[in-house]
Amino acid sequence: MYPDNIASILKESEGSNPTGIKIVGTVGLQAQSVEVLKSMLEAGMTVARFDFSWGDREYHQKTYDNLQLAVKESKIMCAVMLDTKGLEITVMKDKSATIEISEGQSITLTTDVHAVATSTLLPVSCPDLPHLLKPGDPVFIARYLFTGSETSSTYLEVHPTPLMSICRHM
């Protein structure tokens, strides 16, 4: 199982897929069936990437189960990479508009994407945002949003109000 001579691990592999090369293939959509996954493995895929920015848990579980079957049938090992980028929420703002925010100021985040962005109202692209936040949650408003420099990153804290969540600049 182990090499007799340590120098032997530095020799080029006679196989078609040296272990130093990693080929990442995104699985799902058109690459979910055992047959397709098996052909991807046979073509040289060494890492299966699961993109969790779409699809539900059951879909990805089925793809993973099929990948396990494809690995078993092909006898080709494959690593799994989970891309868990997470939810991206976009502030719907005119790129040419300038917005100034002061420390201690209250800002309302609205799910009305047609609202005009101002220093007190920011429309966001996530209709479920009110259900995702609770009082005390930090909210990061991405860098470059306000002045175009990294130093403009803004963190907000959620405070409860009778009708909606209001974020206060920290």
UniProtKB/TrEMBL annotation:
Similarity comment: Belongs to the pyruvate kinase family.
Record keywords: ATP-binding, Glycolysis, Kinase, Magnesium, Metal-binding, Nucleotide-binding, Pyruvate, Transferase
E.C. number(s) listed in UniProt: 2.7.1.40
Domain of life: Eukaryota
Cofactors named for this entry: K(+)
Lineage: Eukaryota, Viridiplantae, Chlorophyta, Pyramimonadophyceae, Pyramimonadales
GO MF, one annotated term: pyruvate kinase activity
Pyruvate kinase barrel domain boundaries: 22-142
Pathway where it operates: Carbohydrate degradation; glycolysis; pyruvate from D-glyceraldehyde 3-phosphate: step 5/5
Keyword Lipid metabolism appears in the UniProt entry: no
Protein name as it appears in the record: pyruvate kinase
